[in-house]
Amino acid sequence: MTNPKFPKLLDYEALKAEYGETSPPSTIHSPSSENDSVDNENALSFSEEIPKKTGLTGSRLRSYAFAVLTRKEYSKAELIEKLALYAEHRDEVLLLVEELSERQYQSDQRVAEIVLSSQKRKGKGPNRIKMALKTKKIDTELIQEELKEIDWTEQAYQLKVKKFGMTVEKDPKIKAKQIRFLMYRGFEMDAIMKAISKKPNEYD
Which region is the signal sequence (predicted)? Predict the structure, then answer.
């Protein structure tokens, strides 16, 4: 039977304000956003050499693709859109990116692992990590094994302790607040309930 004191749906805007987060799930911070300012500056400097009307083709498009990839890792979908902004023909971009991917200059696998590491370090659970991958149009299956190997209950517990302390709360309102916080961070309900019920040194 559902406890009416625990909300069925999450109000992400309210949670963002409550927990001091600067970005809702739809704009999850990821490795690709960390260098946006630098990337924009580099893109501007490079664009001085880009024919604004004719666009890039051939060796110039290829050179620009390598310049982009030396600055940071891009998912295949991101790289296509990035190059298409300056290319003359989108079909040429598709062929080039496919070649770069086959030769491992571009790798969705590497990007997925970077996202996983970055999001986990920031205290995000599996659901938020999957959402971050989705925004980059990366298949979650690429890191499915890595996701399974992580003890998400322990991850949720450590985050709960950092935010609320080690006390196992009995007050339904406080428990509900902890549940909302961990759900917003992307943890599954099973891991959440175990985390907020875990006593110090339990299972150690």
Answer: none
Collect all residues with Cβ–Cβ distance below 8 Å to 143 and sequence separation of at least 6.
112, 113, 116, 133
Rounded to 5 degrees, φ, ψ at 20 are 75, 25
Are residues 116 and 189 located together in one domain of the fold? no
One-letter identity of residue 99: E
Mean pLDDT of the chain: 81
Q: Which residues of 29-59 are buried (b: 16+ CB within 10 A; e: fewer)?
A: ebbbeeeeeebeebbeeeeeebeeeebbeee
pLDDT at 4: 45
Considering the entire predicted model, what is its pTM?
0.69
| Phi then psi dihedrals of residue 56, to 5 deg | -90, 145
> Across-strand partners of 87?
56
Q: Are residues 197 and 112 in the same domain?
A: no
Q: What's the domain range around 182? A: 151-204
Both 141 and 190 in a single domain?
A: no
